[in-house]
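S.,

Sequence below, as promised.
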Amino acid sequence: MDNREFDTALIDSAFSLAAEDGWSAVSVVAAARAAGLPLDRARRRFPCRGAVLCRFVSLVDQAALETELSGGTERERLFELLMRRIDFLQRRRTGVLAVMRALPAHPAAAAALAASSLGSMGWMLEAAGISARGLRGRIRKRGLLGVWLWTLRAWRHDESEDLSSVMATLDQALTRAGQIAGWFGGRHEAGGDASVPEMPDEPTPEASPGG
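The prediction came back faster than expected:
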């Protein structure tokens, strides 16, 4: 078992325990034992429970980045990358939702997860062909994190098999980001507004994904 397989097995075990008993009941030792994994290797790979969440974010990124994109515009590539991240979460839906419900009671874990997620947005931007470097890059990462969190909000409530309302929400959020911040087509590099886009007051699942 290579490191990625080991990490995935332990994280899946931790999230399964979270789904059963809540995140507060999860420990690296308990997750390793439940998955039949050696404790010494678990200690090396996950020195604390927070490392489980940070490594999970890394695995989400890898799932989004491991295959070539289908092409298209920068916006279309971002849409594809973020939906690949959603697909990875969907396969672990019950456990991920349990962790999300628990985060407000664990501010340190929530802060670590937010920091990791901000770094992830840089990877998504660069993979889509949009610079995440410099001051404008930092602002873009914050903006894309807002898009991602808004999409996650829709995902939490979308129990359909095709995730149609998630795709509609992501489509709407990316459109709004493009209109307000001018992310796409290199407009920032020509001096466009790099402000963080504001999301609408409520998600609109009825919007068409291609609209």
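Residues 186-211 have pLDDT under 50 and may be disordered.

Coffee later?
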